[in-house]
Design brief:
Layout: E1 4-9, E2 14-20, E3 22-27, E4 30-34, E5 41-44, E6 47-54, E7 57-64, E8 67-70, E9 74-78, E10 81-83, H1 90-105, H2 112-133
Parallel strand pairs: 1-9
Antiparallel strand pairs: 1-2, 3-4, 3-6, 5-8, 6-7, 7-10, 8-9
The chain binds adenosine-5'-triphosphate.
Residues 64, 81, 83, 87-89, 92-93, 96, 121, 124, 128 line the site of adenosine-5'-triphosphate (ATP).
Length: 138
């Protein structure tokens, strides 16, 4: 079966680097499936779990924004932050989710920027919780 190199990089470190069979990411316009030989492209990513198929089975990674670059034999994901299931602190994510939900419930004086920030924090927390609780799939 054909493979390609996948690298997931954040400003801090290299999160993942392996030959993979396929991956699915949430692009700006919806889910994007990448198989070997995909046409080159660069597109922004949403905050969402990414699914990777490799010899190791199915792995999910919490990817928080950034970009995907598809080249001929290599795909690079540049994200603000990204975590493998084993790196996720579930309690911290649950606490961040509750905090964000509380902020979203406060109506009235709150300005739009705070609201957007809370929405993004909620998306990050929900993504982490999904990835952390899908450990069994690996
Ligand atoms: P929190 O409010 O808990 O800090 P956050 O969504 O604001 O969450 P980020 O700004 O996205 O956090 O991330 C800051 C750093 O902390 C990144 O390196 C990220 O990988 C790490 N991080 C955030 N939440 C978790 C978590 N639940 N488990 C493991 N690492 C996390």
């Amino acid at each position: 079966m054909n493979t390609f190199m996948l690298e997931i990089v954040t400003p801090d470190h290299l999160v993942y680097a392996k030959q993979v069979y396929s991956l699915t990411v949430r692009g700006a316009e919806g889910d994007l499936g990448i198989l070997p030989g995909h046409v080159p492209l660069v597109t922004p990513l949403q905050v969402a779990p990414m699914t990777i198929k490799s010899d190791a089975g199915v792995t999910t990674v919490a990817v928080h924004g950034g970009f995907i670059e598809v080249h001929k034999d290599k795909v690079t994901v540049l994200a603000e932050s990204a975590e493998l299931p084993s790196d996720i602190d579930l309690e911290r994510a649950e606490a961040a989710k509750e905090r964000a939900q509380r902020r979203l419930q406060v109506r009235g004086k709150q300005d739009e920027i705070d609201h957007r920030r809370a929405e993004l924090a909620l998306q990050r927390a929900v993504t982490r919780i999904k990835v952390s609780t899908s450990k069994g799939q690996q």
